[in-house]
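Changelog-adjacent note: as of this version, every example in the card shows the full chain rather than a window. The one below runs 183 residues end to end.
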Amino acid sequence: MDDKFQVPSGYLKNTFCIFDEVITPDLKQRKFDYESKSGSCYYFTKLGMYRLSNHWGRLANSKWRLNPLDTDTNLKFKWGFANWSSFYPDNAIDELYFIQPNYLNNTVNYQHKNSPEFDEKAILRTSFETTKKIKQIRNILTLTSWAKYFEYDDLQDLRKIIIQELVYTNKSLEEIKREIQQL
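Full-length structure tokens:
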């Protein structure tokens, strides 16, 4: 691991970041650079940050998510690493987030507009609006009760049509459903 790095004061506040899960890094018995009251531990390097934690997602004033390894572990505490360039600004006012559905896994998540995945086509939303749309999309992906009012041959196709409209337009879910029923 590279040498210790001093993080500028306030640098990590109000940030969005996706950490990649890593196996335990070789720390050469180094002391943690920071330990939070909630039990998370941090190492700062010139390249980025290692974090050992049992909680990921919304924390205090930031949104830090863990991209898990493909292996299924039962460990409560997991290591994550993120390059400094992966930390993006976060606030409740600006339209910073876009929605990214995964139809193969029937999941949905959000990404920051500064991430390389942004296609410049998806609608950018505030964190509140993004959370609301994600909840609607998760219901479309996992429930079937909403579909009883539609005539369809393939439920997966219907789901995808509705979700694409939620991601790429500012239409409300009710508006989208109404338009589909009129076809």
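Structural remarks: Strands lie at 15-22, 34-35, 41-44, 48-53, 57-59, 62-67, 78-83, 88-89, 97-102, 107-112.
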